[in-house]
Design goal:
Blueprint: E1 2-7, H1 14-17, H2 20-27, E2 32-37, E3 50-51, E4 61-62, H3 64-76, E5 83-93, H4 96-102, E6 107-111, E7 117-118, H5 120-125, E8 129-132, H6 141-153, H7 164-167, E9 186-187, E10 190-191, H8 201-219, H9 231-244
Parallel strand pairs: 1-2, 1-6, 4-7, 5-6, 5-8
Antiparallel strand pairs: 3-4, 9-10
The protein binds 6-chloroguanine.
């Protein structure tokens, strides 16, 4: 996968892209990152990239020319089939489902603005998707793009050691993950649930699924509307509901 990142602050990305899984993904040639300072594409003699908003008002607006030309140059160098992703709090809410969709792509281009808005013609003629990572405002799209890149790249086949490690993730199953324990069995008087030491894999699976359901019911009941449950699981959930009343 090729990932181009258009930003006025490329150095913000250095630590994040060059550690841990994202670093290994590059070393294995599973992903290639390309940081582009779109100021370099400005035809303005002072390399300006923003201007005052028509109609007045506070703040500056990113002007179309540098971004049109930067994206145009990246598309010309490649397949022209890239997804062009604009980072904005007005965008579609980013989810695990969207991460799975983007992980299928060969070429992603991220557009990050800082402080400013984007001239609407960028949205209309360059961008394929507008994404937000949640209902709060960041100073720029850089951090949001790093969150999205991290969650997409880890899904590329070959990057995580074992496929199970993401198939069991919270959200991939539709439920939050069950509790996990490791040694010691007794830590300062707090013991691990005995079922996990029983060696009975069927019982362990049942326990985990129930604890996933319990945790989802307690913390994110909104997720339960979309999840397929067996008759047994539905009964268990009804017990949780009764207990709460
Ligand atoms: Cl994508 N950008 C900014 N500036 N703020 C955000 C966001 C994006 N997602 C949530 N807040």
């Amino acid at each position: 996968m090729k990932i181009d990142i258009l930003t006025l602050f490329p150095t913000m990305f250095e630590g994040v892209l060059n550690e841990s899984i994202l670093k290994r993904a590059q070393e294995q040639s599973l992903v290639q990152f390309n940081l582009v300072n779109f100021r370099d594409f400005s035809l303005n003699k002072h390399q300006k990239v923003d201007d005052y908003p028509y109609g007045g008002g506070a703040g500056m607006v990113l002007t179309p020319q540098p971004i049109f030309d930067a994206v145009g140059s990246l598309l010309k160098q490649s397949d022209e089939n890239a997804r062009v992703l604009l980072m904005t709090p007005q965008g579609e809410r980013f989810t695990q489902k969207k991460a799975e969709e983007l992980a299928e792509e060969k070429h992603l281009i991220f557009l990050c603005g800082h402080y400013e808005g984007f001239d609407e013609r960028i949205r209309e003629h360059v961008v394929t998707d507008e994404l937000s990572i949640g209902d709060y405002v960041l100073t720029g799209g850089e951090l949001a793009s790093m969150v999205i890149i991290d969650s997409v790249v880890r899904l590329i086949p070959g990057i995580l050691g074992n496929k199970q490690s993401y198939e069991q993730d919270s959200f991939s199953t539709g439920l939050l993950e069950h509790p996990q324990y490791t040694r010691p069995y007794d830590f300062r008087g707090h013991q691990v649930p005995d079922v996990l030491l029983s060696g009975n894999h069927k019982k362990i699976e049942e326990w985990r699924r129930k604890e996933s359901l319990r945790r989802t019911f307690e913390r994110r009941p909104d997720l339960l509307t979309d999840v397929h449950l067996t008759e047994n699981e539905r009964q268990f959930l009804n017990q949780l509901i009764q207990k709460k009343r």
